[in-house]
Amino acid sequence: MKKILITGGAGYIGSHTAVVLAEAGLQPIILDDLSNSSEQVLDRLEEIIGEKPVFYKGDCNDRAIYEQIAQDHEISGVIHFAAYKAVGESTQFPLKYYRNNIGSLLVLLDFMQEKGIKDIVFSSSCTVYGQPEILPVTEETPRQEAESPYGNSKKICEDILVDFIKSKPGMRAIALRYFNPVGAHASAKIGELPNGTPNNLVPYITQTAAGIREKLTVFGDDYDTADGSCVRDFIHVMDLADAHMKALEYLSKQDLDFYDVFNVGTGKGDTVLGVIKTFEKVNELELNYQVGKRRPGDIEKIFADTKKINEVLHWQPSHSLEDSMRDSWNWQKSLS
Ligand code: NAD
Ligand code: UFG
């Protein structure tokens, strides 16, 4: 059984990816410092996949933990999710973000090269595009100056991968640029666990519906969009997880010293107000919300051109926005 190291595997996207890998007959090996997740996720994974994943509690910046993992397991490939991801916090503590997000990639690449582990899939973000002039965004759309140290850390990590692969290390890398991950596993046993007050739309919606937050504020309805609210490309986390599986399969068939980048989205833009309406409709409830001021730094509209990932990785999303809103709500309900 092929063993895949998943850094940040106890987190939101990593845990769902562990399920997809296990169901495809691969063995997920999780490395996580639990800085933004809980060990309980491992029990939940056991309930879903029938076996507790091998877990190492440790910091991805610590070379010693990788040595331990390599002694215990022959690793075939790595998916590197581990990172800090709070945009606002990154503007307050940029060094914390650069140290963790960039430092961990450097330590990991050194380790992989030394041990002859060839394949890495890296978590990037559509934040690298800023506000694109032309929509949908393709992978050729120029990246823009980052709006935050978090966004910049993703850009820098992509650049590091490009330069590293150019040096012919005998490895292969794919950066996946995620659009807006939402939803949860259909079992409602795993999902997104935001720390404190959520910054992201969907956890804010579900926490408002659950009565944890009094009301949701829609940040602006005077944008140049169908209903005036911002547009995003909301991708179900299980589809996103599946894209990692497809990326690993594809990498293993490429020549060495290969690098490429793929958008992972649905190709469809939905407005914030449209998401709220869908949430209300599929879950048959009314959400307490008001329209407020624009949020500084927000992108007006962005959604992915998915032609490349559809054709090259043979990946298609299979969940609708309705599925995402139902699964997110079921997950929220399971928490109370
Ligand atoms: P998450 O916080 O739920 O998961 C990240 C996991 O990494 C957490 O379990 C955390 O404890 C762990 N971690 C952080 N630093 C670590 C370290 N030094 N050593 C070991 N473990 C560490 O986040 P997520 O939403 O699952 O995001 C996964 C990846 O996808 C991140 O790289 C993130 O930047 C990227 N991404 C996320 C989104 C999104 O909206 N969720 C969008 C684009 C890109
Ligand atoms: N929004 C609201 N009210 C809220 C929260 C969000 O109206 O309470 C709106 C935002 O203004 C935005 C949309 O919902 O128009 C989506 O906002 P999110 O914060 O959920 O997502 P963003 O697209 O702004 O940013 C997210 C992550 C970033 C990442 C980016 C691209 O937060 O880390 O996606 O992957 F960089």
* Oligomeric form: single chain
Radius of gyration based on Cα positions: 19 Å
Number of strands: 13
Secondary structure category: alpha/beta
Largest sheet: 7 strands, parallel
Spatial strand arrangement across the major sheet = 3-2-1-4-5-6-11
Name given to the CATH homologous superfamily of one domain: NAD(P)-binding Rossmann-like Domain
End-to-end span in angstroms?
Answer: 37 Å
Overall average residue pLDDT: 97
SSE pattern, N- to C-terminal: EHEHEHEHHEHEEHEEEHEEHEHH
> Tell me, what is the CATH class of one domain?
Alpha Beta
Low-pLDDT regions:
none
Large-scale geometry = globular
Description:
With 336 residues, the chain is an alpha/beta fold. The chain has a domain at 3-182 and 233-265: 3-Layer(aba) Sandwich (Rossmann fold), CATH 3.40.50.720. It contains 11 helices and 13 strands. The strands form 4 sheets. It has a 7-stranded parallel sheet with strand order 3-2-1-4-5-6-11, with helices on both faces. Helix 1 links the parallel strand 1 (3-7) and strand 2. Helix 1 (12-23) crosses helix 8, helix 3 (63-72) packs parallel to helix 5 and helix 9 (272-283) crosses helix 11 (321-335). Uridine-5'-diphosphate-4-deoxy-4-fluoro-alpha-D-galactose binds at residues 85, 87, 125-127, 151, 178, 180, 199-201, 204, 216-219, 230, 232, 272, 295, 298.
